[in-house]
């Protein structure tokens, strides 16, 4: 390293980490990013999928934020309603993990008891977004369709009632499409303890929920 107007060099040992939310290869092709700079930076690329592309992580992230943020603000929540998880799974999360973190913090503040209870207006906004935003690309539509069939078959791929038969695909082809689209096979086992509590969104109904701790 050479300081401005200096004739001497100072040797330093540093590691440069560059992050971006755009496809730099496309920008290079469009002459909007320097190709030489791209190849200098592109030593060991690490691609991090957006939260909307790895929604299977939402339950773990939700539990983590509930515990960490709950300790920070002095609020203890033990239950996460199943309906809430379903609403979070349908949402697109344009703000990625930070948006989920802020959502959890707001929900902890507004929860009157030991059940995570977000404001109804926020849930309605999420529901409205999910209803009004259909997939806009062929890949999005294919991913949404496969994920819906996987949910209906409880993650089962093969067999007479498996997802491959319902989709009219060989099992190997379905696995290939899932890998290409970044779809993880659904698990039949809850990630955290599963129980039943009163549904906070309906009058007295029972729905699957998740227990913290």
- Biggest sheet overview: 3 strands, antiparallel
Q: What is the number of helical segments per DSSP (H or I, 4+ residues)?
A: 9
Structural class: mainly alpha
**DSSP strand count:** 3
Q: Write out the strand line-up for the largest beta sheet, numbering strands in chain order.
A: 1-3-2
Rg over alpha carbons: 22 Å
- Report how far apart the termini are: 51 Å
- Average pLDDT confidence is 80
Word description of this protein:
With 213 residues, this protein is mostly helical. It has a domain of 44 residues. The chain is 46% helix and 7% strand. It has 9 helices and 3 strands. A 3-stranded antiparallel sheet has the order 1-3-2. The longest helix is centred in the first third of the chain and has 16 residues. About 10% of the residues have low confidence.
């Amino acid at each position: 390293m050479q300081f401005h107007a200096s004739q001497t060099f100072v040797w330093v040992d540093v590691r440069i980490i560059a992050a971006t939310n755009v496809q730099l290869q496309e920008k290079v092709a469009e002459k909007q990013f320097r190709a030489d700079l791209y190849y200098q930076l592109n030593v060991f690329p690490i691609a991090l999928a957006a939260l909307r592309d790895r929604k299977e992580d939402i339950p773990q992230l939700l539990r983590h934020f509930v515990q960490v943020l709950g300790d920070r603000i002095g609020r203890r929540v033990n239950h996460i309603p199943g309906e809430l998880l379903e609403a979070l799974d349908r949402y697109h999360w344009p703000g990625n993990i930070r948006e989920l973190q802020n959502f959890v913090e707001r929900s902890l503040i507004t929860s009157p008891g030991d059940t995570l209870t977000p404001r109804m207006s926020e849930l309605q906004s999420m529901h409205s977004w999910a209803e009004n935003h259909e997939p806009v690309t062929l890949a999005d539509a294919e991913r949404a369709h496969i994920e819906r069939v996987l949910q209906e078959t409880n993650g089962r791929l093969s067999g007479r009632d498996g997802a491959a038969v319902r989709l009219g695909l060989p099992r190997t082809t379905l696995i290939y499409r899932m890998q290409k689209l970044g779809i993880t096979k659904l698990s039949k086992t809850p990630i955290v303890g599963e129980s039943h509590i009163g549904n906070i969104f309906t009058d007295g109904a029972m729905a699957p929920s998740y227990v913290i701790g």
